[in-house]
Amino acid sequence: MKKYVSALPFFFVACIIAGCASKPIPEWRYESFGQLENYKINYLKSKDQVAEFHYRKTLEEVKRSGDLKLIAKVYLTKYALKAAVLEDVADSDYLDMDVIEPDKENRNFFVFLQGNLSIVDAKLLPAQYGPFLKAALGGKEREVNDAVSKIDDSLSCLIAIGITVKKNLYNEETLQTAVNTASANGWQKPLLAHLGKLEQYYEATNEKAKASKIRQKIKAIKN
Predict the structure, then answer these.
(1) How far apart, in Å, do the first and last CA atoms of the chain sit?
(2) Number of compact structural domains in the chain
(3) Would 105 be classed as within a structural domain?
(4) CB distance 75 to 90 below 8 Å
(5) Is residue 192 part of a domain?
């Protein structure tokens, strides 16, 4: 089973505690990290109202610092979670921060989430995505699936798969990896999203029996 690491896939935690090793960490840093973790967990579990509350609290705490680069990372967190559940999102919040105070690492991760892989700088990308980026640029589903399966962090794995779907580099194995990962972690939102995509895949490949079984499974989960 893949592990779920509490740290964000693009060094949010490092930014939160940066410069605080030799002195007390300000309360807003602890509070913002805790709120962000609660946001992620509740979002993935389909507890949308609770998740939204914690998201707003995260922004509230981070905005106390006036650190626009860190605020941008909160927005990118939301986008990353949306990618993991195969949803698009309006990107104006992040872009507003990027115009005022650009940051290469933030911009690179934003481009990655958008699926513009040819212009992603691998050196600025979190290390767990390196092999996946290389495979995706190669455009071969088998290599992409192999790279995705080796991403040890569950959330990062789902984010990568979300990008493969956006780039149409997926097949049954890709989606099944996402389903298994979401199921193992008890994350209903990405589970239903990828089951839905798997049903569409089976319909497109004229595998009616498999599609019907997935529909029944979705219905059972929702009920």
Answers:
(1) 26
(2) 1
(3) yes
(4) no
(5) yes
Taking 90 as the threshold, does the pLDDT of residue 3 lie above it?
A: no
Nearest Cα residue to 62 out of 30, 39, 94: 30
- For the residues 102-111, what does the mean pLDDT come to? 96
- Condensed to tens digits (0 to 9), the pLDDT of residues 115-174 reads 999 999 999 999 999 999 999 999 999 999 999 999 999 999 999 999 999 999 999 999
| DSSP class of 89 | -
Angle, to 10 degrees, between the axis of helix 154-166 and the axis of helix 130-138? 20
Locate 78 and state its tokens. 């939301």
Crossing angle (nearest 10°) for helices 104-114 and 92-100: 150
In a domain, 79, yes or no: yes
pTM of the model: 0.90
Please list, residue by residue across 75-93, b when 16 or more beta carbons sit within 10 angstroms of its beta carbon and e when fewer do. Answer: bbbbbbbbbbbbeeeebeb
